[in-house]
Design brief:
The chain has 205 residues and is α/β, with parallel strands linked by helices. The chain has one domain: Vaccinia Virus protein VP39 (Rossmann fold, 3-Layer(aba) Sandwich). It contains 8 helices and 7 strands, in the order ααβαβαβαβαβαββα. The protein has a 7-stranded mixed beta sheet with strand order 3-2-1-4-5-7-6, sandwiched between helices. Helix 2 crosses helix 3.
Length: 205
């Protein structure tokens, strides 16, 4: 699946400190759980996806390489966003990738972003309450949020908590990497996401 462009980019992300240590193959295997979970639950590739806090591009760049669909890589840090822009400008990179620089709490309310995505992914964005609140408004009703989890994460996504955002538990995978999968079943209420920084300071659950 991964061509020389992708492996080269992930190795560069490690050099810049935007991706954790270890063999690139491990990061590819981790990202495989995202695409395999989607394909097993839904089938066809998503029409549009957003990678929340994309950093070094895992899983966003790997999903772009596999599906070659519209893929938004969102990051709040200028240096990481610039790195992702360079990766997408490589002549070997697939078409369809774009970088958004900014805070998810603000970008989620823009007309280009609100309920615009079939899939939102997050690998190391933040605690469950923060990730769910920042992701929910990006998703269309029926879309999925797939979030990397510690293998022994336990019950970190209470139904009453995620339900306040229009989400519900759909599935979870533990093999040996782990993901939590939430489905958007109702529009996200107007107050969410709250102002920048508030989801972390006053988590919903």
């Amino acid at each position: 699946m991964a061509d020389s462009w992708l492996r080269r980019t992930l190795a560069s992300a490690q050099e810049w400190g935007f991706l954790g240590p270890g063999p690139v193959e491990q990061h590819l295997k981790h990202a495989e759980l995202f695409w395999r979970s989607w394909e097993e639950l839904v089938g066809d590739p998503p029409g549009a996806l957003l990678d929340l806090g994309s950093g070094g591009g895992v899983p966003g760049l790997i999903l772009l390489e596999r599906w070659q669909r519209r893929t938004v890589l969102l990051d709040a840090m200028q240096r990481r966003a610039a790195f992702l822009e360079r990766a997408l400008s490589d002549e070997e990179s697939p078409a369809g990738g774009v970088v958004w620089l900014g805070r998810a709490e603000e970008l989620a309310r823009e007309s280009r972003a609100e309920e615009a995505f079939d899939l939102v992914t997050a690998r190391s964005f933040g605690p469950p309450a923060v990730t769910a609140e920042c992701a929910a408004r990006f998703l269309r009703v029926g879309g999925l949020l797939i979030v990397s989890e510690p293998p022994d994460g336990g019950l970190r996504w209470p139904e009453d908590g995620v339900g306040r955002l229009g989400l519900r538990h759909r599935d979870a995978r533990r093999e040996p990497f782990a993901v939590e999968i939430l489905e958007k079943v109702a529009p996200t209420p107007a107050p969410y996401p709250r102002r920048v920084g508030v989801p972390a300071k006053r988590p919903l659950f």
